[in-house]
Structure to design on (757 residues):
């Protein structure tokens, strides 16, 4: 063989090998890239901040041990109650301790944390570890609204929280109930699409079945109810602020109507509903005491009996309504994308790359698909593929309806108000809700909230807050797209 | 007739006392009983007043998961800080009373330190502790609670020591006792009721503190009040664990108060409250 021929063969062989290698590299998924790159940090311990309670069982029992097995890195979990998470993150950041590496961040906090400098911008890491393609496959609502601040990535949306309606299919389908309802109201008994219908159906079922069953119940404790107010207020056409002056407009007629309706609805709900939180409302629905409710996605899974035998869920009362639960969008059709979590890296971390690789791996298509199906960890579908995952679709007989409703809800959902110092505005709302349940006049409550909001805005700086609000209001999920 | 009226009055008084006792004891009963219930019983409506089967699973899981370490941490921290605060506080109080150290103003200044709201100083202390390396350590919290309780101990013990006749101490000194022997042999025994009463309150202050423990711990020395908050999630409340851990956290204080009740009553009714 001539030298030229040999060179040609060698060249062809090298070309083929390079092609094979590069195609192999291109085929590598984000979780594989992260795990591979993280091996050089074997022995390193990263500290992650996670919401206390069920949420933290994910890194404690599932993802943490799995990551350690794959990479040799250790994951130390710091459990923090939700209401203390922001403070703890900020306090460690201000002190420059470097105590935290990876963070769970509620998206509405992201502007404050990012502008304070507590979060590491992630764009460079995303490119370095080739995550951009998989990142794009996160459901658009979460990807476009809960990931960036001023165009920079500060967190990966990791929990598709959204309020949806759960109702008793068997009660709604009952021929006698159907006939009685139609005779009284002139339309079919079906999941309500307006709040007027909701009120009529709720009252009808309560009148017919109480005290064995009530038409509906919600979690009414102020932190939850203020989120429901945000949703209903915008569904009815309300705007939080005048975008030009930044004056609060929450005390409009729409706001008064929403608060008044909320209080009136308590009359057909179980006694004491004003004090109910997430768990009390769940227990009532699961025991068959209520026919309709609105809540986060775990209700739908647990009511269907999914994960009922899990030890971690032994605090949840056994469902009495498996197979009888229907899923629908709440009245108005634009549910609140309430809270949620994004994964971020602390700017003061001493192990930024290691922390980043862990969150990329957690958030990747493959691993997140497994995580959102853990019955006990409260992570809800947030990627396009999660809603159509064949395994998830087969988890229980009605899982396909559940996932379809979640998908629809994510497409039409409304973002939590996310401006500077959002929590102060929400605190005013929380106080307002407490005042509502204690019997104060809705108009007076809203006037007070509006005046508190204006004072907060003045303190922050009208122009500064206006820019933040306009940025938020321009997002697709800020107000219903009519 | 008069006797019957007296009996009726007595009966009404007893009934009133029993009613008030029930009102005050009911939350404690409810806390205990929830810790023995199943989830279905906890959420049942109407409420289940007594569980069908008393079951200890809610406690077992705390031991199995290691959560109960938080009670141990609280015991170590509250216990150590109480001993230190009592020791140094009593010496300081003795000095204030017998040697008039700092005159009257120093005593007032010391007690004024106890009036600072913790929330005001918690973050500066956190920054200081970051620098000192005291965050999430036993010594960090022990030092803090000792410092925070010292003014209370000094103020209380000052009153108890002032009530001890100085002639007793002078006699002991004349008999050849050293000042330290006077303290150990005369002052401490005479102020025993006050010492126990003050120690119990000091222990309870440290035991129940939440804000410092929340800010100054992460994972290593989490105390029981902070551990209880770990059972509250945005979408989950582990009521059974909350109740069981609260019972475990309440029992040591119950025991301490029950054992020292004799001294507590005597201690509270003498010394400091006389001014």
């Amino acid at each position: 063989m001539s030298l030229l021929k040999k060179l040609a063969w060698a060249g062809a062989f090298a070309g083929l090998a390079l092609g094979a290698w590069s195609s192999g590299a291109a085929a590598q998924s984000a979780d594989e890239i992260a795990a591979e790159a993280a091996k050089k940090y074997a022995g390193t311990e990263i500290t992650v901040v996670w919401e206390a309670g069920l949420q933290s069982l994910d890194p404690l029992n599932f993802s943490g041990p799995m990551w350690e097995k794959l990479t040799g890195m250790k994951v130390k979990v710091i459990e923090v109650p939700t209401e203390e998470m922001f403070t703890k993150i900020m306090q460690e950041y201000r002190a420059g301790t470097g105590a935290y590496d990876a963070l769970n961040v509620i998206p509405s906090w992201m502007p404050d944390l990012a502008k304070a400098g507590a979060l590491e911008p992630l764009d460079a890491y995303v490119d370095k570890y080739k995550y951009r393609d998989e990142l794009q496959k996160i459901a658009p609502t979460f990807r476009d609204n809960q990931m960036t601040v001023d165009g920079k990535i500060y967190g990966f949306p990791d929990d598709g929280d959204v309020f949806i309606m759960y109702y008793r299919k068997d009660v709604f389908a009952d021929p006698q109930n159907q006939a009685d309802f139609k005779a009284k109201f002139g339309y079919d008994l079906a999941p309500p699409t307006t709040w007027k219908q909701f009120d009529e159906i709720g009252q009808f079922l309560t009148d017919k079945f109480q005290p064995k069953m009530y038409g509906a119940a919600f979690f009414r404790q102020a932190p939850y109810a203020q989120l429901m107010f945000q949703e209903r207020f915008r569904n009815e056409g309300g705007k939080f602020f005048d975008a030009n002056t930044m004056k609060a407009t929450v005390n409009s007629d729409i706001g008064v109507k929403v608060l008044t309706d909320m209080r009136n609805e308590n009359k057909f709900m179980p006694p004491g509903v004003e004090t109910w939180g997430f768990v009390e409302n769940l227990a009532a629905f699961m025991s068959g005491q209520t026919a309709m409710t609105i809540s986060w996605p775990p209700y739908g899974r647990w009511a269907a009996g999914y994960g009922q035998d899990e030890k971690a869920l032994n605090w949840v009362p056994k469902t009495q309504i498996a197979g009888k639960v229907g899923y629908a969008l709440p009245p108005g059709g634009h549910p609140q994308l309430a809270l949620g979590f994004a994964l971020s890296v602390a700017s003061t971390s001493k192990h930024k790359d290691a922390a980043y690789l862990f969150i990329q791996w957690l958030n990747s298509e493959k691993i997140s698909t497994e995580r959102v199906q853990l019955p006990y960890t409260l992570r809800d579908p947030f990627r396009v593929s999660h809603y159509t995952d064949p395994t998830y679709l087969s988890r229980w007989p009605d899982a396909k309806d559940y996932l379809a409703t979640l998908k629809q809800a994510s497409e039409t959902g409304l973002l939590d108000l996310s401006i500077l110092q959002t929590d102060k505005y929400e605190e005013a709302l929380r106080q307002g809700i407490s005042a509502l349940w204690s019997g104060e006049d809705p108009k007076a409550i809203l006037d007070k909230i509006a005046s508190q909001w204006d004072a907060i805005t003045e303190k922050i700086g009208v122009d500064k807050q206006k820019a933040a609000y306009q940025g938020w209001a321009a997002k697709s999920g800020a107000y219903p797209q009519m | 007739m008069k006797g019957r009226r007296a009996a009726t009055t007595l009966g009404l008084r007893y009934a009133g006392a029993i009613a008030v006792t029930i009102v005050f004891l009911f939350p404690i009963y409810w806390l205990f009983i929830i810790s023995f219930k199943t989830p279905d019983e906890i959420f049942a409506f109407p409420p289940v007043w007594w569980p069908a089967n008393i079951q200890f699973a809610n406690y077992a899981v705390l031991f199995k998961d290691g959560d109960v370490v938080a009670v141990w941490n609280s015991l170590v921290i509250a216990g150590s800080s109480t001993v230190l605060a009592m020791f140094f506080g009593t010496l300081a109080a003795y000095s204030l009373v017998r040697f008039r150290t700092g005159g009257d103003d120093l005593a007032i200044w010391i007690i004024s330190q106890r009036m600072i709201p913790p929330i005001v100083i918690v973050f500066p202390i956190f920054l200081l502790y970051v620098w000192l390396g005291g965050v999430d350590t036993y010594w960090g919290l022990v030092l803090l609670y000792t410092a925070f309780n010292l003014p209370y101990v000094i103020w209380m013990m000052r009153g108890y020591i002032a009530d001890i006749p100085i002639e007793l101490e002078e006699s002991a000194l004349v008999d050849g006792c050293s000042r330290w022997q006077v303290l150990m042999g005369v002052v401490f025994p005479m102020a025993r009721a006050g010492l126990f009463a003050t120690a119990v309150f000091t222990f309870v202050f440290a035991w129940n503190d939440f804000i410092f423990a929340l800010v100054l711990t992460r994972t290593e020395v989490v105390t029981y009040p902070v551990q209880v908050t770990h059972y509250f999630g945005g979408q989950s409340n582990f009521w059974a664990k909350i109740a069981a851990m609260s019972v475990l956290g309440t029992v040591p204080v119950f025991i301490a108060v029950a054992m020292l009740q004799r001294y507590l009553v005597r201690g509270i009714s003498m010394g400091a409250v006389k001014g």
Remarks:
- Chain B has two domains: 1-35, 56-272.
- The domain at 56-272 of chain B is CATH 1.10.3720.10 (MetI-like fold).
